[in-house]
Amino acid sequence: MKSFVEEWENIHRTMDWGKYPSVNVIRFVARNYYNKNRKQIKILDFGCGGGANTWYLAREGFDVYAFDGSQSAVQKAKDFLESEGYHNVHFDIMDGAEIQYQKGFFDCVIDNVCIYANKIEGIRRMYENVYSVLKKEGKIFSTCFGVKTEGYGTGSVLEPDTYCNIEKGVLSGRAVAHFFTKENLFNLLEEVGFKNILIDENVYTDNGIMVQMFIAKADK
Length: 220
Description:
The protein is of the alpha/beta class. The protein has one domain (7-143, 180-219): 3-Layer(aba) Sandwich (Rossmann fold), CATH 3.40.50.150. Helix content is 30%, strand content 30%. The strands form two sheets. It has a seven-stranded mixed beta sheet, with helices on both faces. Strands 6-7-8 form a three-stranded antiparallel beta sheet, with no helix packed on it. Strand 9 (195-206) and strand 10 form a beta hairpin. The protein is globular, with a radius of gyration of 16 Å.
């Protein structure tokens, strides 16, 4: 199945994105991998966008792989990293529901608000794919939006808790979005097979707009 929505190609083609990584990604990677032999740690940036988190991972010396469904996003990410002197990142253009990596290949997969942007069937398939490409005891980091996020319930309903054409909030103009409850996210990860699931919640305002983020970490 395909999960990539072509609207994202237009978004990435016409907009510039931040060049700095998520602080949540930095904390997760630092806590789990800074004391490892970084050159031997294979990390996948799942839906890399413009490459901010990819740049951080490469800068810190990990063996970095990255993909996005948007050709424009991948090209921008490659240009950005090469301009910073990083030429060894393995970039691909792929659909998140049809990734082509070897099973049991990665030590870690980073999903920084990519997988959420689908209907639940696609989300489940992508989490299953992540589980497949992780090594035993490998880790997933995944962030998504909660139902308390402003804009939830607006736009066009595609299925329960999934909307497009969202009319306000940080997800306005961002194609499809599925909004989670903490319980639903936990149950989905558990059904896929993940263990040691920990989900942090971060509720904040961004320029006055309410955002509820879930930051999930789990092991294969």
